[in-house]
Every structure is written in C-alpha cells, then in structure tokens.
Amino acid sequence: MITRYTGCGKRVCTLVTSLKASSNSLYALPRDLSSVPRDLAGVTRDQQYRGGFEGGRWWGLLAGGILAASVSHEVDETDSNAAPSSTIPNLDPLLSTTDDTSLSVPPHLLTQLDEWYTTGQYSELMSLLDSFADIECAELLWRRARAEWQILKSVGQDPSILGRSDRVSQIQGLVDLLDRALELDERCSAAHHWKAVLSNACSGSAGLKNQFKNLETMRYHLEQAIELDPTDTDSMTLLGAWHMELLELSWVQRNFISLFCTFPNCSYEQALELFLRAEQLAPAVSLSNSYLTGKACFRLGRKTEAKRFLEQALDCHAVTKEDQIVLEEAKRFYNSSF
C-alpha cells in the first residue's frame, strides 16, 4: 500500500486528547538529550506519525500537542516496518558540494534526512545532523527540532529513562531552535509549522493558562505555514481542527478560557474552508480530514455533503493505531447523526 505524504515533510495525524487532561499528562522529558537512545528500531509507524490520541477527543490544542511528521514523498507501507540498519552508512557522498551556492547544505542531504526520519533511523539522522552542528541553516534547524521531539516522545513514557522535572525546558530548547530557524529564514513554511506544534506542546507542559495564551500564537504560525506553502494540507487540517475544537467547547469551558485571554475568533465556515482546500489538494487521502470535513458540514446543516465525507472516512483503511481511533470516532458520529 502506498501512502502519500505532502507539504514540507509532514503528514497529518492530529493529536486527540481530553480538554480535562492536565499538564501532567505530557510525556516527561530527559535532562540531557545525549541520554536518550537514538536507535529506535522498535518505534511503530503510529508513533512516527504526527500525532497521538488520548481521551478520544480532537483536543490537541489545549492539552499540549504531541505531533510527529513524515516526509514529502511516497512510501511503501509494506516495507516501512522493517528494522532500520544499526550501522551508519558512509556520509561522504552526502557531504559533497553542490553547484547551488544559495543553499547552506546540499538538497540531497535534506532528502536523506527526511528518508531516515520516515523509517525511524534516528541514529543515522542525528549523526548526520551532528556533522552539520556548526552550520546555522533553517532547513537543518527545523529538522533537528522535529527529530529530537520525536525521540523525546518515543521514550518519554519510560520513567527509568526520563525524569519529569525538566520537560518545559527541554521542549523550550526545541522552540528556541525553531525561533532561530525563523530568524534565518522567516519564509520557511516548515519552521512555522513546527513552531506552532512545539510552542503548543511547551505551553501545555507549563499549565493550562499558558496553553490558552498560546492559542493565537499557534494559529498565527499555522496561517504563516499555509501562506508560504499553499500545498501544506497538514497545516490546513490542523488549523481547521483548531477552529473545530474551540467551537465544540461548552459554555462553561469557553468562559473558563476567557478568564485568561480573549476567546479566539473561530467559525465552522473557516474550518470547513480549510478542510475543503486540503481535500481538493489531496482527495480522500487523509482519514482525519475526511472525518472533520464531514463533521463541519453537519454542524453547518449541509447534511448531504456531511454524509458523503463521513462515508468517505469510513471507507479509509486504518493504517495506524491513531487511524483506528479516528475511524471509531467517525463511526460513532455517523451512527448518531444519520
């Protein structure tokens, strides 16, 4: 089975958590990244995708986003579960010069980093990134933040490896990498995307008040990512989910948020526009987008379209554990609505 990946090395599998989840639910982080195993051959495909599910809700915005990513090329799922090589290949061909003097690193090196990320070969990936540690390049910085975030998530639930006390400072370090990437290249779409993801995770680990205050920051960077890369369907789906989750809150929850910040402007119309744009670019590719499109249509009274998109979601094959949770939620919503 071939899975299509689109936009700045990212594939959406939106985080689902309960609004009631406290900052204690965030994975603990290590004091020193050097203590974290980089060879995670046992990491499953669902752990590599951008997202995780907890509590059966589409609330990845107020509970500390835990999002991962994949690369912008086609991957054969039948081969994706093979254990990555534990040996680091010869890097000399990757370190060769390029005729494009406008780039700090050869483009084929970036391709190799993305391939290793997709297959979970974190030892190779981090070793190559370390080889370029002295080069300040936006394309390398956001990839390092993405890789280190995935490593932290993958081992973060093991108390024998990680403590909990430094989780805010650890994620903040990754946010700082993205801030530097944006200083170097403010038009880097992927850096904006990951700034949205990791600033959300960092604020989530610092408490609900900080999460609420970060909502507009998250929206800003997702909007920038989409503006700079109009094909970034991942950010479109995530921003649409941002609208949906705020709209699905109860009156009590909305007023609680308003104690800390002005409640963000959001609408089902804006959410649906984003979902439809993503669907137009990648028809029936994302189970998450199909489900959310159907749900937004239903909320707007467009029941015929809602039924079509929900049935499209139900026809999707659940590849990962997260996909299965989304599929089950889509079934429940469909059965209760039609």
Written overview of the protein:
The protein is mainly alpha-helical and 338 residues long. The chain is built from 14 helices and two strands. A two-stranded antiparallel ribbon has the order 1-2. Helix 4 packs antiparallel against helix 5 and helix 12 (287-299) runs parallel beside helix 14 (321-337). The longest helix is centred in the middle third of the chain and has 18 residues, at 138-155. The radius of gyration is 19 Å and the shape is globular. The model is unreliable at 1-88, 96-103 and 159-163 (pLDDT under 50).
Beta-strand proportion: under 5%
Mean pLDDT: 74
Q: Name the helicity range.
A: 40-55%
Structural class: mainly alpha
N-C termini distance = 31 Å
Q: Tell me the total number of β-strands.
A: 2
Order of helices and strands: EHEHHHHHHHHHHHHH
Identify low-pLDDT runs. Answer: 1-88, 96-103, 159-163
Question: If helices are DSSP runs of H or I spanning 4 or more residues, what is the number of helices?
Answer: 14
Please give the largest β-sheet: 2 strands, antiparallel
Q: Going across the major beta sheet, what is the strand order?
A: 1-2
Principal-axis shape equals globular
If you compute it from the alpha carbons, what radius of gyration comes out, rounded to the nearest whole angstrom?
Answer: 19 Å
